[in-house]
Amino acid sequence: MRGRVRGPAIGAGVLLVALLVVPAAADPAVRPRIPTYDVVLTLRADGILHVRETITFDFAGGGHGIVRRLRYRDGDRLYEVRDVRASSSTGAPARVRTTKLGHELRIGVGTRGPEVRGRQAYVIEYDVLRAFTPRAGFDELGWDAIGTGWDVPIEHAAVRVEAPVRLRDVRCRAGRPGASVGCAADRDGRYAIDFTQSGLAAGEGIRVRVRLPDRAVTAPPPAYARPHWAGTWLGTALLVLALGAAALAVRRPPHRRAGTGLAAAGVLLVVADAGNDVAARGPWAFSLGDPSLAGLALLTVGAGIVLAHRGRDA
Asked: What positions does the domain DUF2207 occupy (predicted)?
């Protein structure tokens, strides 16, 4: 009799837990989200873009800070981000850690601090240099105000643009890149304009384009990095010839030391070529030009010789 009662009792308990827990987990109100995201873009007369982002993040069950992903390289275009700082009006840990990964600058705020729960407010500020692009008769700024790297929905976003001159041509688009809609706009005098957008899904952003009259700001020229692959036909030809030479070396390999020396020289050439760019602009600014291709050619031949000797020894 006891066994007959225990089975239904366990089943009823499991059903009760499912009824109480599963709906709570499915309730979007308890999932991480960004209730409000306010950005102020201040276009300074010296050509520097000052950005102030106020982010209200609801951690729901808990989390360790936020990470703002900011593209510092778009194609070959480079943006210089300086003076990154953060704070929290709700007392959440706000120590800043910046790392470059890929073409992104990742700004971690409170990521190594204690866990926080519920709704927290963060303020991130930074300056962007070389953000303007000189055009015929005007200077243009194109900027993704909130980024597309957030993996949580943003319920309400507001972007304010302030300039030292009258704003005549300002546009705002919201959504995913290539599939966006216009933002609601409200002018605040001649020198500022506010954009708003609600219901942004994860991965969606807000991009603002501003055109200022020529010489309205002292905009330094844009900075560009060399393409990651900058080899010419000469370097490519060397690499192709090296593949043929490696095939011949496998059949009749020279001394093993020759192979080791060629491989070492190849590595040094690649490191020297890419190292100049890395030292100047970070680990993801590397560019492989003809010296790198020549180094890969030497490395290919040297590795072929070494492998041929290993095969014969085996």
From this structure: 33-210
